[in-house]
Design brief:
It is built from 13 helices and 14 strands. The chain is α/β, with parallel strands linked by helices and 347 residues long. The structure holds NADP nicotinamide-adenine-dinucleotide phosphate.
Length: 347
């Protein structure tokens, strides 16, 4: 078994890590960290548990420690669910001696830190060797993109490989769990929609192009089509919905787009990784799907569900579709775990 720790184990994403890792066949949770407020408490006493499964027995009595490498012994991998400012300070310290699989945005756009979705750009893991050489670390940091970017980019990858994309516009309807438990006050979101999520649009625009970029001699050149995002918070607990509009250079057939989505597979599917969905993209044909409550848990929350795939009646080189992705599973904890499974398998 591989010993793993969870940094920020009491938060929204930290709890998902615990839920997913408690049943993992290769990873064993041996350390949990949080802020000084929680350090020294049993996990069950430190956490306000929000998930609809029980706190796994294996972690109930585990003592939560401060997020400091000196407090976390004998781990091979740490999964980071820390706020970005804390991650910027502590992830490099952990990376001196172990693998850090991070959800935080702090290190994502560093030129020697791989930003990876295993089905999309596993070759970017080549940056690890350069990172270790640059920084003199025995471990390293690998990051996954933010939650809305992951779902979008999984659906763009097969289209990017087959068609000439000119521009992508995306309008998101994002769940409240994406902001963490204390993120959005109920008075702000019940009976309401908030048409702004700090830094989210910039992240979607830059991370998408980075993920689809080519790597050559240790340098990633981002893809060069235009991406424009408008991000909005809605009164849904889990599951981000996105309305995607793609302008191609050439005319296309909707059937070819659907075929491209449904046959799409990546390295995790070929290797049969434990957390890999059978089909990364699942298509629904009903007019009123996908919906977050009904579709977010598709294939254990690791598949992106796409529907209303159609040609724009006004602009004949434009495609429109709706997607739903589970923000704390495929968009966060599940994404980091899949990165770690891939690294564990191929390195
Ligand atoms: N939620 C999502 O859908 C999502 C998706 C993708 C990426 N992310 C990213 O994942 C990270 C975690 O998000 P979240 O939604 O889980 O946040 P959260 O619910 O606010 O949880 C934050 C966690 O970090 C700990 N923490 C806070 N300040 C700390 C400090 N100074 N030192 C050490 N630990 C500290 C907290 O411990 P205490 O309980 O002791 O305060 C808690 O365990 C963020 O970087 C976020 O941007 C989130």
């Amino acid at each position: 078994m591989v010993n793993v720790g969870i940094l920020g184990a009491t938060g929204m994403v930290g709890q998902r890590f615990i839920q997913l890792l408690a049943e993992h066949p290769k990873f064993e949770i041996t350390a949990l960290t949080a802020s000084k407020r929680s350090a020294g408490k049993r996990y069950e006493d430190a956490v306000t548990w929000h998930l609809d499964t029980k706190i796994p027995d294996v972690v109930k009595d585990t003592l939560v420690v401060d997020t400091d490498p000196n407090e976390v012994k004998d781990v091979d991998i740490v999964f980071s669910a820390l706020p970005s400012d804390t991650a910027a300070l502590v992830e490099p310290k952990f990376a001196q001696s172990c693998i850090v699989a991070s959800n935080a945005s702090a290190m994502r756009m560093e030129p020697d830190v791989p930003l990876v979705i295993p089905e999309v750009n596993p070759e970017h893991l080549d940056l690890i060797e350069i990172q270790q050489k640059n920084r003199g670390w025995d471990g390293f940091i690998v990051t996954n993109p933010n939650c809305s970017t992951i779902a979008l980019t999984i659906t763009l990858k097969p289209l990017y490989d087959q068609f000439n994309i000119k521009r992508v516009y995306v309008s998101t309807m994002q769940a409240v769990s994406g902001a963490g438990y204390n993120g959005v006050p109920s008075m702000a979101i019940v009976d309401n929609l908030v048409p702004f999520i700090g830094e989210e649009e910039d992240k979607m625009e830059s991370e998408t192009l980075q993920l689809l970029g080519d790597i050559d001699e240790g340098v990633v050149t981002p893809a060069s089509f235009g991406v424009s995002a408008s991000c909005h918070r809605v009164s849904v607990l889990d599951g981000h919905t996105e309305a995607v509009f793609i302008e191609f250079e050439d005319k296309f057939e909707v059937d070819d787009v659907k075929k491209s989505f449904s046959k799409f597979q990546g390295l995790p599917q070929k290797l049969g990784l434990f957390s890999a969905p059978q089909k990364p993209i699942v298509i629904r044909e009903e007019d009123d799907r996908p919906q977050p409550r009904m579709d977010r848990n598709e294939d254990k929350g690791m598949a992106v569900v796409v529907g209303r795939v159609r040609k724009d009646p006004v602009f004949d080189k434009n495609l429109k579709y709706i997607l739903v992705g589970h923000n704390t599973i495929r968009g966060a904890a599940g994404a980091s775990i899949l990165n770690a499974e891939l690294i564990n398998e191929i390195m």
